[in-house]
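User: quick one, fold this
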Amino acid sequence: MQTRRTLRGSSARNFKSGLSLWLILWLVVMKPGGVAPCPRLCVCYPTPMTVSCQSQNLTIVPAGVPYDSQRVFLQNNRITELRADSFGFETQVLWLYGNNITWIEAGAFSNLRVLEELDLGDNPSLRHLEGGAFRGLEKLQSLHMHRCKLATLPHDIFHKLYSLQFLYLQENQLHFLQDDLFSDLVNLTHLFLHGNRIRALSENVFRGLVNLDRLLLHDNRIRQVNRRAFRDLGRLTILYLFNNSLAELPGQAMKDTQGIQFLRLNDNPWSCGCEARALWEWFRDARISSSELMCTSPSQRRGQDLRFLRELDFALCPLPDPGSLAGSTTTTFSTKTRWWFSKHKPASSSKALYQKSSESVKSFPFSAVKPQFVPKTPTESLSSKYELSEHEAALPKVDPEEYWTNYGNEDSSIRCYELECPPNYDNPAFSSSSSLPITPSFLHFLCLSMVTLSLHFIFG
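Assistant:
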């Protein structure tokens, strides 16, 4: 019995000794992590490990940032350069906005393999970036570079940033965007480019952005948009292009944005002539929230909303040219068509009154055959979408097939075009139908008469 008690006491002492040993080992191992040195002028927090050095007038990245720091806050200092090996391996969030960064060494972030958010905004001295500045950030999800006075972007600046979802480039000084600049950003959903100096959008500028949801391009100087510029943006829901220099926008470009829901195009100098027909037709079928599109030209349509123009406003316009790179319409007419319109130019359609109904009548002023004029009587009723004026009722009405049959058919008997015709061109004296018929026999008779007269005068 006594032997059993001795064994039990010995086991209890051994258990306590082992527990004490494990406790000591745990304290030895955990003590360095708990009291890891924090960089001077910084404050450190555990779980998750955070190093906050904001607003301390630092000119360089402080040394001694713990390698396991998950969040590093260095905003609102005076840091001028970022060099390689300045940051730890486990950092997931790095804020550097509001500094004086002028240079970022290629590969400066290459060790940050798990970095998810990088904020470099509000660095007004950051005018240039090295091509490999963001090399290795394949898990980066959010990149802020707003208000940095960037004038250009290297063609490979976003190379292999496959995880990027948010890209903030607004309020810089970008003049143009290179083709395929964003081609690796297959998961990008938000792209902010407003407040720059961009002048044109090329065919391949947004290629690869198949998941883009929001595209903000307002407050730029955009004058031209390629008809295929948005061809990969099938999932786009928000597009802002207001306050630019757009006079026209290809209808084909908008057809590629199948999922568009919110469109802002106001504050642009829209031209509402024939070049606006494709966009006007797109708006007829679109079911979106859109801003107003006020016309600035031609003068008779100034102040009108392009979306609400009438079909007869485009009655004299040619059909769209499928091969036009700009997505606008062709101005090619057959010679007879141009001649007919020069003679029978209708009065301004703005003077006529139009009333909508459930039916639709289309006018295709493309016939190469001179139409018959049927004057409209007061008792005559037209079951059409509009109440036509006398001049508009006289417009030729043919099917598109007939237009394409006569497309490009030049008639050598037409001697002048539109304003080139003489004032009395409509006078029967100028008409070939009122002149004497000229036949070979008549010419032969005329020649013989002239020879006879000549011989008479010579020989008496």
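User: anything notable?
Assistant: Confidence is low (pLDDT under 50) at residues 23-34, 325-388, 395-422, 424-436.
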